[in-house]
Write a structure and sequence with these properties.
Elements: E1 7-12, H1 15-26, E2 29-34, E3 37-41, E4 48-53, E5 72-76, H2 80-89, E6 94-100, E7 106-111, E8 117-122
Amino acid sequence: MKITSSAVSLNVEDAAASSKFLTTHFGFREEMAADGFASLARDDAGMNVIFLRRGLKSLPEDQRNDHATGLILAFVVDDLEGELARLQAEGVPITMPLTVEEWGERAFQVRDPNGVIIQLVDWNAPTGD
């Protein structure tokens, strides 16, 4: 098997709203879009993000009413504090403040208009040496 690309596909109420959130605040671009569908990319993301409107008939019946809950869309960034300040200046509510975990992860979270959790993270916590 050879994997040529990767994507995460999330069922949401309003695909256009989630798409606009990622294009406006996270630098993604829409590569394809239609009613109830948006495929987003960034050259440096390593994967596409796809939003599908819940209830689409093109989804299998046992999936079409699921909602993207219980997951975190995480992006590792170089300047965590800079991204936090930028998003705050853009009026994006921070739903989890900047935290530092004992294993060295530093992260904060926001939610898109559909409740999808987006976490920005780095591994630059002080080592204590």
